[in-house]
Amino acid sequence: MTNRRKFIAQAILGGLGLSVGQQGKAASRWPISGLASEPAVISTWNNVAANRKAWKVLKKGGRALDAVEQGVRVAEANPEDMSVGYGGRPDRDGKVTLDACIMDEEGNCGSVCFLQDIKHPISVARLVMEKTPHVMLAGEGALQFALENGFERENLLTEDARKSWEEWKKESHYQPVINIENHDTIGMLAIGQDGNLSGACTTSGAAFKMHGRVGDSPIIGAGLYVDNEVGGAVATGLGEAVIKTAGSFLVVELMRQGMSPQAACEEAVRRITRKQKGYEDFQVAFLAINREGKAGAYSIHKGFMYALSRQGGHEVVDAGHFI
Ligand code: ASP
């Protein structure tokens, strides 16, 4: 209960751009909040650099769609981010396989999964949305499409990621590790100056997964969902658990029924804990924003946080947790 109370305080203050313990200092940084036309960016974990990039796009009056694409590309290009793009941990066979999806204010969406050798899967996903009659391309087909559209083939397995795979191979024991193994997968939601919403999600997926495994992150409704009339949601954590509950779609639908982003994220987490065995041993987190610009987040286990950017500043807010 203590954690829950603390989180509610954090969530309310977070909505104002404040953190617990910083109210006095931060109050003047966030003069306006909650207006539909106020731009905002939120993303999973503490990737402030990605938010900054997205914010630059919004500040110039750019589309939320461009903001989320540009924002998550920062994580995809960062070799230190070992759950996304270049530098992502490989699967059991030592292959880096990437999943990503993107969704705009009109409900258009594009996705790629099990894509190899391309550093920016989010941009390929966007092209799938804009240039094809399809929503999702997988594996070889996605690679072929990317190459045909000018993307370069690159080796994405860094020395650090290769070493962690070599280490893992000594025992070859696959078990989801809360908050460590999957840390840094990025899901981002943005509201532009015109009040329109878009979202993006990109990951190298669960570390040392089976070759061919696809998680929730490229699946519209699971890893990401946006409805411009309501809001958007993204998920991170054990993809299988998110897919089983159509997590991001669920959060958006709960908001449509009148729940706040915070209440909707909490209910989606509770749905998983009620229906899925073993939740004590895996992590799932949801992050949401409604079209008024109110944000919310909740996870099964402690340790989830999100980066929030609004007029005047960027900050990292701790999410509440079920256990
Ligand atoms: N949801 C991703 C997956 O299961 C991983 C993560 O978000 O941490 O592939």
Average residue-wise pLDDT: 88
Helix-strand sequence: HHEHHEEHEHHEEEEHHHEEEEE
Label the CATH architecture: 4-Layer Sandwich
Residue share in helix: 25-40%
Radius of gyration: 18 Å
Name the bound molecules.
Answer: aspartic acid
Superfamily (CATH H level) name: (Glycosyl)asparaginase
Number of domains: 1
Q: Strand count, sense and closure of the main sheet?
A: 8 strands, mixed
Tally of DSSP helical segments: 10
Described by the principal axes of the CA atoms, the overall outline is: globular
Here the CATH topology equals Glutamine Phosphoribosylpyrophosphate, subunit 1, domain 1
In terms of per-residue confidence, which ranges show pLDDT below 50 for 5 or more consecutive residues?
Answer: 1-35
Q: Approximately how much beta-strand content do the residues carry?
A: 15-25%
Q: What structural class is derived from the secondary structure elements?
A: alpha+beta
First and last CA, distance? 10 Å
Which class in CATH terms? Alpha Beta
Strand order of the largest sheet: 4-3-2-6-5-1-11-12
Q: How would you characterize the overall build of this protein?
A:
With 323 residues, the protein is of the alpha+beta class. The protein has one domain (30-321): 4-Layer Sandwich (Glutamine Phosphoribosylpyrophosphate, subunit 1, domain 1), CATH 3.60.20. Helix content is 33%, strand content 22%. The chain has helices spanning 2-15, 23-26, 48-59, 64-77, 121-131, 139-148, 159-169, 239-244, 247-256, 261-275, and strands at 40-44, 98-103, 109-115, 136-138, 186-191, 197-203, 224-227, 231-237, 284-290, 295-299, 305-310, 313-318, 320-321. The strands form two sheets. It has an eight-stranded mixed β-sheet, with helices on both faces. It has a five-stranded mixed β-sheet with strand order 7-8-9-10-13. A hairpin with a 4-residue loop joins strand 9 (284-290) and strand 10 (295-299). The longest helix has 15 residues, at 261-275. Aspartic acid (ASP) is lined by residues 83, 182, 185, 203, 205-206, 215-217, 236-239. Residues 83, 182, 185, 203, 205-206, 215-217, 236-239 line the site of aspartic acid.
